Amino acid sequence: MRKLVLLGGGYGNMRVLLRLLPNNFPEDTVITLVDRTPFHSLKTEFYALAAGTSTDKEIRVSFPEHPRLKTVYGEITKVDLKEKTVILEDGQVVPYDDLVIGLGCEDNYHGVPGAEENTYSIQTIAKSRTTFEKLCGLPPGSTVGIVGAGLSGIELASELRESRKDLKIKLFDRSNRILRDFPEKLSNYVKEWFIKHDVEVIANSNITKVEATQLYNHDEVIDVDAIVWTAGVQPVKIVREMDAEKDRRGRPLVNQYFQLTADEHVYVIGDCASSDLPASAQLAEEQAERVVKVLRHRWNNEPLPEKMPEIKLKGFMGSLGKKQGFVYLADTTVTGRIARLMKSGLLWMYKRQNEH
């Protein structure tokens, strides 16, 4: 039997499974999904889990079941491209003929002293649970520092405000305005929400050192009771250590078919693949659609298309608590209650599409 192995049950590989199951792959092929947890986690909602406004169960989706889909659970320690095997922490060895790597990313601490040791994370469901326990266990009047004012930082700050009105929240933004690369209307809307809800945004910040209860912003020392790091990501360690050509951010270089430049049997998608587009669930899903097309061509012994269709992202959505939000779609900005309903509707559709 031919072995198609999927590493990581994130948005990319969930889309691969959605397109191949139940009967859109050859009868002589077995699919193996390798993940550390027995369910797909909605990473775009980890901020709500950490803030205590969504439960663990609300942000999980079961993996599909199929006679020729095998699930293997555990921590991956190595991808051996020469031997065509994946090695797990418990000693299991998973051989493959074709491999799709969708292992996502982890926090990038940019070499800031103390950042890794002294901050909390929302990069995995397990880390988000730990962050929830810390944030929601803080005494009234405590100060939470959130480093990084991208989408994750904005959503965490707003949701935490909704969950804990008694906390002081400081959001550290490297740029001079929130969501600097998007229309000013969007920036102003988010900024005004933070002013109204007493979230302090510290613009032009540069965190140079982190201690357990202190943040060093330029030369200023700021006392805090807990720190959450949302200031950038990098590919997971296993992918950074893979013997493959990489870009300056440690992400494996891929061709237009999302194959490694030196290995046509290994595909890389999602946050750990080199791309000019911003990392997102939407990008991982679009990359997965193209990988499925390539696999089908190969299974049918057909030549690959000379030119793969370009990926065009539709935009992005963000929430400000459970009642307000913002959407940037086709160069149009939508804010307020309607934007929040759009995001909730998309989440509902996604879960409905993927639940089995």
TrEMBL record:
<dbReference type="Pfam" id="PF07992">
    <property type="entry name" value="Pyr_redox_2"/>
</dbReference>
<dbReference type="InterPro" id="IPR036188">
    <property type="entry name" value="FAD/NAD-bd_sf"/>
</dbReference>
<dbReference type="GO" id="GO:0003955">
    <property type="term" value="F:NAD(P)H dehydrogenase (quinone) activity"/>
</dbReference>
<keyword id="KW-0274">FAD</keyword>
<dbReference type="GO" id="GO:0019646">
    <property type="term" value="P:aerobic electron transport chain"/>
</dbReference>
<keyword id="KW-0285">Flavoprotein</keyword>
<comment type="similarity">
    <text>Belongs to the NADH dehydrogenase family.</text>
</comment>
<keyword id="KW-0560">Oxidoreductase</keyword>
<dbReference type="InterPro" id="IPR051169">
    <property type="entry name" value="NADH-Q_oxidoreductase"/>
</dbReference>
<dbReference type="InterPro" id="IPR023753">
    <property type="entry name" value="FAD/NAD-binding_dom"/>
</dbReference>
<protein>
    <submittedName>
        <fullName>NAD(P)/FAD-dependent oxidoreductase</fullName>
    </submittedName>
</protein>
<feature type="domain" description="FAD/NAD(P)-binding">
    <location>
        <begin position="3"/>
        <end position="288"/>
    </location>
</feature>
